[in-house]
Design brief:
Blueprint lengths: L11 E5 L6 E8 L5 E8 L4 H6 L8 E8 L4 E8 L3 E7 L5 E7 L7 E7 L5 E7 L5 E4 L5 E5 L3 E6 L6 E7 L9 E6 L5 E6 L3 E8 L2 E9 L6 E6 L5 E6 L3 E6 H7 L4 E4 L5 E8 L4 E8 L2 E9 L5 E9 L3 E7 L4 E6 L4 E6 L12 E4 L8 E3 L5 E5 L5 E5 L1
Antiparallel strand pairs: 1-32, 2-3, 3-4, 4-5, 6-7, 7-8, 8-9, 10-11, 11-12, 12-13, 14-15, 15-16, 16-17, 18-19, 19-20, 20-21, 22-23, 23-24, 24-25, 26-27, 27-28, 28-29, 30-31, 31-32
């Protein structure tokens, strides 16, 4: 169904409010063909968080993982009682398996990883971690599941039962702040890129569940990581830092040299808000925040070692999220605190006049959660008020 709050000209396919108005969408994922959408929620009832903050143990709050059909209908729900709730969801590219991670309200162990059969909602894995699970990722065939918590944890699907079993983990050498903030997993599950809160990024090889640390890079003093983007084949990754630096790594070269293939800093007073890799061209798309506004820029490393700006698009609001949509060869950006979404061709090189694509204001500001179907012309995003919208792109 469509929502009359949207302009009739918006390429909107459907909207769904799986948890009602009191449950906001925190994280989204969609299968390659757009036929399976997964959402993770947290509850934002008025006065609830203030009341919880004043007492321990906090009031129990039900968080949920929702699986939706390609037409927006709710296929199944798994309810989780937690403090932070569902922080990350993933769906395998083939649409068969779903993963979720987040945090329980108990002191410890406080993190959780779950895996599901996407069709039935059957729980295939329940696992607890000491720290909150910040991100989960699935290989394209759903054979491998990776979670970021106090360490990188790796699970493999047991083929005769479809259940998941933990096969390995990796923790960087003990250092203050060595919690894993983010992970990226190659389509085939053999390459894992991790990012730690203490300013390190590293690459692991996964050979049948045997994890081999290959190389690490440590940010200079005074910098911390803000965002990580990893190519689907694991051959490239890019990181943005709190000091405005963007560093691009070609994985094979990184394993030899331990260094990025290029680095570039945004202008003074600007921040890196989000990153994406435009495949297969290997160029980096950078969302740059400048005050209440910003731009989206497409950068490419040149043979002489410089980094060129190939295209730039000025936004009406500050960029909040960014994604490269290969099926439509476009860039999708959420701006202004989730108050608008825009999409335009990746090769557009104009900054004023003649801009193509589309931009639409949203009825409410959401969490900026965004996901695209790699093989279908659809994207899904949180549009506020606990609603998910699916757009044609």
């Amino acid at each position: 169904m469509t929502d009359p709050a949207f302009d009739s000209g918006v390429p909107l396919l459907w909207t769904c409010s799986p948890g009602g108005a009191v449950c906001s969408i925190q994280t989204l994922a969609v299968a390659d063909d757009g036929g399976t959408v997964v959402a993770g929620t947290y509850c934002g009832q008025p006065g609830l968080w203030a009341e919880q903050a004043e007492s321990r143990p906090p009031m129990p709050v039900v968080q949920s993982v929702y699986c939706l059909n390609g037409d927006g209908g709710v296929r199944w729900r798994d309810a989780v009682t937690g403090w932070t709730g569902v922080c990350s969801v993933a769906v395998s590219g083939n649409g068969r398996f779903v993963a979720a991670g987040g945090e329980y309200q108990e002191e410890a162990p406080q993190g959780f990883v779950r895996a599901y059969d996407a069709d039935s909602g059957a729980v295939l894995l329940k696992h607890r971690t000491v720290r909150r699970v910040n991100q989960v990722a699935l290989s394209r065939d759903g054979l491998w599941l990776v979670a970021a918590a106090e360490r990188v944890e790796v699970f493999c699907r047991v083929l005769d039962t479809d259940g998941f079993s933990k096969v390995g983990d990796y923790a960087p050498d003990e250092r203050a702040g060595a919690v894993i903030n983010a992970v990226g997993l190659a389509d085939d599950g053999t390459t894992i890129v991790w990012q730690a809160a203490d300013g390190r990024v590293g690459v692991l090889s996964n050979s049948g569940g045997m994890l081999v640390p290959l190389k690490e890079f440590d940010l200079p003093d005074g910098e911390s990581f803000r965002v990580l983007a990893v190519a689907t084949d694991g051959g490239q990754f890019v990181v943005g830092s709190s000091a405005g630096w963007v560093r691009c790594f070609e994985t094979s070269a990184f394993l030899r040299t331990g260094q990025p293939i290029w680095a570039r800093r945004v202008a003074e007073g600007e921040q890196v808000a989000a990153l994406a890799i435009a495949e297969p061209m290997g160029q980096v798309v950078v969302a740059v925040q400048a005050g209440e506004g910003g731009t989206v820029q497409r950068w490419a490393g040149e043979s002489d070692g410089t980094v060129a700006t190939r295209a730039e698009r000025r936004l009406a609001g500050s960029p909040q999220n960014l994604i490269w949509h290969g099926a439509s060869e476009s860039i999708v950006a959420v701006e202004g605190g989730g108050g608008a979404v825009a999409s335009w061709p990746v090769n557009e090189a104009t900054t004023a006049g003649g801009q193509t694509g589309w931009r639409r204001e949203l009825p409410e500001s959401g969490s900026s959660a965004l996901a695209v179907a790699r093989e279908a012309g659809v994207l899904v995003m949180d549009v506020g008020g606990g609603a998910v919208a699916c757009f044609s792109n």
